Amino acid sequence: MAKKRSTQSNPIAKKKQTTAWHTLNERIVACRSCPRLNAYTQRVAQEKRRAFLDWDYWGLPVPNFGDPGAALLIVGLAPAAHGANRTGRMFTGDRSGDWLFRALAKVGFANQPQATDIEDGLRLHNCAITAACHCAPPDNKPSREEISACEQFLAETIDLLQPRVFLALGQLGWQATVRHLAASNLLLADSSGKIRRPKFAHAANVKLQGNRYLLGSYHPSQQNTFTGRLTEEMLDGVFLEAQRLLHE
Ligand code: SF4
What we know:
Layout: H1 11-30, H2 35-47, E1 65-66, E2 72-76, H3 84-87, H4 95-106, E3 127-131, H5 144-161, E4 165-169, H6 171-183, E5 205-208, E6 212-217, H7 222-225, H8 232-246
Parallel strand pairs: 2-3, 2-4, 4-6
Antiparallel strand pairs: 1-3, 5-6
Helix pairs in contact: 1-5, 4-8
The structure holds iron/sulfur cluster.
């Protein structure tokens, strides 16, 4: 991985970075590498859910969302069939997004907690959201091959942003991120001199090469939030830690 370039004070570098971000997003949206997912996202977009019959569903791969100069990169699993696959923006229009953007707004990574559609005025500051899989999968379960096919976009997103802090939401987002970190030689050796792949846990905090960090959080899915496995305080705690690390 190349050294982080500072684009904040250089308008030409900032413009180049923004252009590269948009180009990458266009390629993600145009991708048709996973026939099962491409067919499913389009079918959901045609059939719709009763509550959203008046919506013109997105029905395509969902691009990255956020600040093209972000130092915090959130890695989720995949768009929800009637959430981001409907609205066309990561975590927008579902309960997981309600939790995520509320937490982001609380610590200043987002300008508002509401995320309803792409024209709702939501902006992220120093934070971007990507996913291990950019297409909504049946039962929220992408296959290993589909995650593997999408890892090229995760790698390109990371290479473009060169984030200081990675926050993986859930086990699969964590594993995809760790694979990239291992391939990029960003994992540090432990006290015995061995480089081991860190295990996922809520509030996991792993120091990486180059003063970077990998944080873990339970995914704010209803499965976790309805059961109390993930509370608002637990999610807030992870973002407070991300903010603290960025200010170190
Ligand atoms: S999951 Fe990723 S690789 Fe597969 S079609 Fe969607 S964008 Fe392309």
